[in-house]
Amino acid sequence: MSQELLRLTGVSRQYGRGETAVSALAGIDLTIAAGEMVAVMGASGSGKSTLLTVAGGLTKPTSGEVVIDGQWISELSAKQLAVVRRRTLGFVFQDFNLIPALTALENVTLPLELDGWRARDSRRAGMDALASVELSDRAHRFPDDLSGGQQQRVAIARAVVGTRRLILADEPTGALDSQTGELVLRILRRRVDAGAGAGAVLVTHDARHAAWADRVVHLQDGRIVGQTSQGTAEEALLGADR
Amino acid sequence: MPGVYILDMYYSVEHCGVYVSVRQSILAILDQGSSYGYRLRAEFERRTGATWPLNVGQIYNTLDRLERDGLVVKGETDAEGHVFYSISASGHDEVASWLRSPVLRAETTRDELAIKLAIAVTLPGVDIDEIVRLQRMSTMSTLQDLTRAKNSGGDPGSTDELAWLLVVDSMIFQAEAEIRWLDHSRSRLTRARAEGLSATGIQPELPRRGRPARSEPTSTNESVAR
Ligand SMILES: Nc1ncnc2c1ncn2[C@@H]1O[C@H](COP(=O)(O)OP(=O)(O)OP(=O)(O)O)[C@@H](O)[C@H]1O
Ligand SMILES: [Mg+2]
């Protein structure tokens, strides 16, 4: 059995209370092993982003447990959780979330610097990450001076910089053309396949991109209605969580 | 060549459409110089990444028909007993016109899945959401297989490898299109159900009035009963 990077057990998440409550996630069981890339698909509003933020410890589940790299999130203080997020998690937000006052490079190296890396080391790691998304020549630009797709690539560089092992990416190819989208998938795939115990969860609407994953999880109304893996159509169907 | 079996599996249903291309492809290869059955088979497979394996009988059938249509000419038999065929002038023209014309999808594909869903949606007691869900997962799994096959191939350093990648990409995009169509169908079905539509079983015989016989060229705005 391979090492477990992320485990969600019976996770539900409601927004609001009473009559107007929205059940964004309802009883999610999901495990991500080291060396595994999992794609999450589902219609708009099916709970994909909520799933990702809960998995990344950014949103508390209403019920259920989240375990990131062996640590029970519910037992961590806010400060401890911030450290886990910084060291273990790389998060790509659906709307990029870059800091406008920082250059591309500074955005990318921020998590490393918060973590006490030496300036020279973080700079080198940051430039490597920007090179991997083919943005070396934009390192000193501010987000406002970058195109949407370029901002998205900076956000991806920020998520994979350094040695973070669990990459959670919400629509990381949404603003990219088909070739650049594949570049991003290749980066995620390489990180996961490198044998360094990394894993990734990728939310996408694009079936062609989801197909890069080892496993595709299908969400509907906050529930997992099926999972598929390569070459196992039949088994996946029989094992579908229904 | 990786992934060959996967590709077979995925394409087994489409052979009807593919035969046309086999004939044209053989002709196009002969346009490069005269050749014989086994050699033509090897050339076809090399050029398509062995995606659609042919048996030599299919090649000879094709050659017979091409000869009958005056597109190739049967020539010498060499010492090893290979019968050589060469292209005729009209064969050469046919190749040129094939390469120039777009492939008309509607004429070559008979979409079993579309037919299946169309029938299923009219049958009472059929869980069409479940059919769509299972089909989506099956196609997704195929798409994963194709993607894995593509990514495990080498760099397109040769035209053979490049040819194979083009074929795999084409299948990838077709599988993707099918998934998008399934998602679209699912929301269409959800909406239709919200509007109170339900399946009807066998429709009672409709009165003749207003229903033109099939071959009669009458009114054009006859709407289909739904
Ligand atoms: N902060 C919030 N407050 C209230 N409801 C919310 C909040 N965030 C999400 N929701 C609701 O939870 C459900 C799931 O939202 P979520 O953002 O997870 O969907 P999604 O699958 O990511 O959709 P999309 O593909 O559009 O990004 C939706 O019905 C949404 O309206
Ligand atoms: Mg979302």
Automatic annotation (TrEMBL), chain A:
Residues 6-241 form the ABC transporter domain. InterPro entries: AAA+_ATPase, ABC_transporter-like_ATP-bd, ABC_transporter-like_CS, ABC_transpr_LolD-like, MacB-like_ATP-bd, P-loop_NTPase. Keywords: ATP-binding, Nucleotide-binding, Transport. PROSITE patterns: ABC_TRANSPORTER_1, ABC_TRANSPORTER_2. GO terms for molecular function: ATP binding. Transmembrane segments: none annotated. Gene3D superfamilies: P-loop containing nucleotide triphosphate hydrolases (3.40.50.300). PANTHER family: IMPORT ATP-BINDING PROTEIN. This is ABC transporter ATP-binding protein. It comes from Cryobacterium algoricola.
